[in-house]
Structures are given as structure tokens and as C-alpha cells.
Design a protein that fits this description.
Layout lengths: L2 H8 L22 H5 L13 H6 L6 H7 L2 E10 L5 H10 L4 H14 L10 E4 L4 H7 L3 H13 L8 E3 L12 H7 L3 E3 L9 E9 L3 H10 L6 E10 L1
Parallel strand pairs: 1-6, 2-5, 5-6
Antiparallel strand pairs: 3-4
Length: 239
């Protein structure tokens, strides 16, 4: 029996959402056609003051002013992270079950669908939210970097993983509540050689935005980059 047939027998390649068999030749992490069509899309690419921008603004009344202060041009999520939708198990598998290629494939899909709204126009660089080195060693990969790779492969925009680093190994945000979320990530990020990012137009990518505290903390650190303008793309926005 050929090796590929043995792999198919003992490790069948299945859709990460419905777990139906999708074939050995299907790229790792790719959803089946039915599940791809049923993804809980936000359609936020063309919508300003959407729920992702509201979260990043800190739910302030004047959202436009709050985003301007943070030098945010636009922000959007590709999918809603819905309570009873199987997208939750997909994201969990991507982050914790050694299936980073889910992030890559969903990043590609997000870019394919959002580029028609001109969301990626005039962006110079993609920066994924970094993990602390200790957590990166433990997990073995940064899921946000895989999402960024998928976006980059569609748009041709280069990725940078060297300028922004995480200097504190913070407890998981999912375990925090209220003000603790903000305190948990305060001053968690640092920008190396910020002068190299002056006047750049940067897309910051993360896997999940809930209250927006992690992304805000990262953008706050990046304000040291004079004249830089930021766009934000989250794979999912929690409902």
C-alpha cells in the first residue's frame, strides 16, 4: 500500500468545521465547500463604525475621533465568533490543537473576499500580533502569523515579525474580565527600531477581537512610529 493511502486510512483529512472527509489532496486546514459557504461573515470591510471599530474605540461615543487618536484608518473582522456556531471549534483547533494551517487558509479567504472592498489598498506592511517567546515555544507557532501569511499570499503585501515584540508573558485574556483585561496587556508590547516604520501604512492582524484590549495595547506601543497609519484585520470578532 502506498504511503499516501496509509495516511488517508489512519489520518484522514477532514474539514475542520464539520469533520467530514474532504480528501488527501485537499490543502491542510481548508474547509469543505458547504462549510465555507456557511461561515458567519461580518461583511465589515466596507462598513465603518462596525463592531470591531467600536471595540477598538473603547466604545466611546465619538468613534471617529477615538480611532483618529489611535491613528486607525479602518478596522474589520472577517467572521463573527458566534456562541453556538462551529466556528468556535475551528478557531480552538487553530490555536490549541496544532492546526495553524486553518489560520492560513482562513486568512487567504478573508483576503480574497475583502480585497474587493479595497481594504488592502495602500498598505505597505502586515504585522501580526506577536506572542511572547515563552508561549511561542510552548505552542510551536503564532496563529496570527499564519493568518497574516494567508493574507500576504493573496495581496502580495510583505509581513514583518521583527519590529513588534511582546515583552511580558501575560496570562490569557480569555481568563480575564472587565478592567483586568486592560491591566493584563498594559505595556505588554515594544517596538524595535520604530524609525524604520515611520510614515508606514501598516495592517495589524490578530485572530480574535473581544473587547479590543490586546489590539489597543499593541497599537498604543506602535504610536511611537511617527506618521504611521494603521488598519486592523481580525479573523474573528466575538459577539
Amino acid at each position: 500500500m502506498q504511503p499516501i493511502m496509509l495516511r488517508s486510512l489512519f489520518f484522514p483529512r477532514c474539514c475542520p468545521m464539520c469533520e467530514d472527509y474532504i480528501g488527501e489532496k485537499t490543502p491542510a486546514g481548508l474547509l469543505c465547500t458547504r462549510c465555507l459557504s456557511e461561515l458567519p461573515r461580518t461583511e465589515q470591510a466596507q462598513k465603518r463604525h462596525n463592531s470591531t471599530e467600536m471595540a477598538l474605540s473603547g466604545m466611546k461615543r465619538d468613534i471617529a475621533r477615538a480611532l483618529k487618536v489611535m491613528h486607525i484608518k479602518q478596522a474589520a473582522a472577517f467572521l463573527f465568533y458566534e456562541k453556538d456556531h462551529p466556528i468556535r471549534q475551528v478557531i480552538h483547533a487553530m490555536k490549541y490543537a496544532d492546526q495553524p494551517w486553518i489560520g492560513y487558509q482562513l486568512g487567504k479567504q478573508a483576503a480574497i473576499e475583502m480585497q474587493y472592498a479595497d481594504f488592502f489598498d495602500e498598505i505597505d506592511l502586515i504585522i501580526p500580533i506577536p506572542l511572547h517567546p515563552k508561549r511561542l515555544r510552548s505552542r510551536g507557532y503564532n496563529q496570527s502569523e499564519y493568518i497574516a501569511r494567508g493574507i500576504s499570499d493573496v495581496t502580495g503585501i510583505p509581513i514583518d515579525t521583527t519590529h513588534v515584540t511582546r515583552k511580558r508573558n501575560t496570562p490569557k485574556q480569555a481568563l480575564q474580565a472587565g478592567q483586568d483585561r486592560k491591566n493584563n496587556v498594559a505595556d505588554a508590547f515594544i517596538v524595535n527600531h520604530p524609525e524604520q516604520l515611520y510614515h508606514s501604512r501598516i495592517l495589524v492582524v490578530d485572530d480574535l477581537v473581544t473587547t479590543g484590549e490586546t489590539m489597543r495595547a499593541c497599537l498604543q506601543a506602535m504610536k511611537i512610529c511617527r506618521g504611521a497609519e494603521f488598519s486592523v484585520l481580525a479573523l474573528c470578532k466575538a459577539q
